[in-house]
């Protein structure tokens, strides 16, 4: 035998040398859930180890994460039903707790990257990402609301806006509004290929944001489609996106690779709530080794081509790998 590939696997030191993919804490954005109030820390039932925090406790959590090397956070607000309406008005109320919290986080941790979510669902009484009229999700009318929301988030100090609703033309619309108002430095991480997925279930529990009727299939992508992700990627690129995201991650590793091979922009992948819940639930049952399953999944996302990984495992990864 001339070739014996096993020679390069014979010891941990050799395996370390030939390792093609290496995860670093710098790869991660940690998504976190914010609620109004003080001294609140409520675990999300379907996401063990993940909490909804009031701002005071979120600041402590961010400090702990920063000490572990995590430098980027994506903050999602959970609003009570009483604050929701058809037009997601609360999303651009300057006094709303979410915008005040973004400002506070950036004031206390100016070096940290704060990403915000641009979509109507946390504020919508219909639980949809767009304006609902006679059972239809209106596109262009939704853009107007997204524009106001984006401007308010930029004014609060967000570094990266994450339009997550899959409305057509949103990236260009938001880019224009930001630029017209002097926010040329605020970045856009577009949810480019966001699929209509069952894996968002635990997130909708965390935010109480499930649609009141219908589903999200007229705006989010069909799981069957691959090349369609390139149509979205081309548009987001033309419209000025700084990052392209694929979501969910694990069932769409092929799409991550597709965008990586066809774009020069950094590619992000969102390791979503359901992907977190699956590993946690089976580890709790003793059915698999949760830590190894986590590391293997995160590695696969990076190997597929993701430069940036949004994951609820970010802190756990940082804790395990710190020296
Ligand atoms: C909605 C939004 C969702 C997620 C992020 N932003 C859910 C949805 O589209 O219904 C899901 C994140 C996750 O599951 O972790 N704008």
From TrEMBL:
- Stated family: Belongs to the ALAD family.
| UniProt entry keywords in alphabetical sequence | Heme biosynthesis, Lyase, Porphyrin biosynthesis
Q: Which source organism does the UniProt entry give?
A: Belliella marina
Gene coding for it: hemB
Name the InterPro entries for this protein.
Answer: ALAD, ALAD_AS, Aldolase_TIM
The record's Pfam families line, in alphabetical order, gives: ALAD (PF00490)
- Catalytic activity of the protein: 2 5-aminolevulinate = porphobilinogen + 2 H2O + H(+)
Entry-linked SMART domains: ALAD (SM01004)
The protein's annotated pathway:
Porphyrin-containing compound metabolism; protoporphyrin-IX biosynthesis; coproporphyrinogen-III from 5-aminolevulinate: step 1/4
Record Gene3D superfamilies: Aldolase class I
Name of the protein in its database record: Delta-aminolevulinic acid dehydratase
Which NCBIfam families does the record cross-reference, listed alphabetically? Answer: PRK09283.1
Q: What class of enzyme is it?
A: lyase
The signal peptide here is: none
What EC number is given for this enzyme?
Answer: 4.2.1.24
Tell me the SUPFAM superfamilies matching this sequence. Answer: Aldolase
What is annotated about its quaternary structure and interactions?
Homooctamer.
Q: Name one GO molecular function term.
A: porphobilinogen synthase activity
């Amino acid at each position: 035998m001339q070739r014996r590939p096993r020679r390069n696997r014979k010891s941990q030191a050799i395996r370390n040398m030939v390792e093609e993919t290496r995860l670093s804490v710098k790869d991660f954005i940690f998504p976190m859930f914010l609620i109004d109030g003080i001294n609140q820390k409520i675990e999300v039932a379907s996401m063990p180890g993940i909490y909804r925090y009031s701002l005071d406790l979120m600041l402590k959590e961010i400090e702990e994460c920063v000490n572990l090397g995590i430098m980027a956070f994506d903050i999602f607000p959970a609003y009570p039903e009483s604050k929701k309406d058809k037009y997601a008005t609360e999303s651009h109320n300057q006094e709303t707790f979410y915008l005040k919290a973004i400002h506070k986080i950036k004031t206390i941790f100016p070096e940290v990257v704060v990403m915000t979510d641009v979509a109507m669902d946390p504020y919508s009484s219909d639980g949809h990402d767009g304006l609902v009229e006679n059972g239809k999700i209106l596109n262009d009318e939704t853009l107007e609301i997204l524009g106001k929301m984006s401007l308010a988030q930029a004014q609060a100090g967000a570094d990266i806006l994450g339009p997550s609703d899959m409305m057509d033309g949103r990236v260009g619309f938001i880019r224009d509004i930001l630029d017209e108002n002097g926010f040329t430095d605020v970045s856009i991480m577009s949810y480019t290929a966001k699929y209509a997925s069952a894996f968002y279930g635990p997130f909708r529990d965390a935010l109480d944001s499930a649609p009141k009727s219908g589903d999200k299939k007229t705006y989010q992508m069909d799981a069957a489609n691959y090349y369609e992700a390139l149509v979205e990627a081309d548009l987001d690129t033309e419209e000025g996106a700084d990052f392209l995201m694929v979501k969910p991650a694990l069932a769409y590793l092929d799409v991550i690779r597709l965008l990586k091979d066809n774009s020069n922009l950094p590619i992000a992948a969102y390791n979503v709530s359901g992907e977190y819940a699956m590993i946690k639930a089976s580890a709790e049952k003793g059915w698999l080794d949760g830590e190894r399953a986590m590391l293997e999944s995160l590695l696969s996302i990076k190997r597929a081509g993701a430069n940036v990984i949004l994951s609820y495992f970010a802190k756990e990864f940082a804790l395990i790998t710190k020296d």
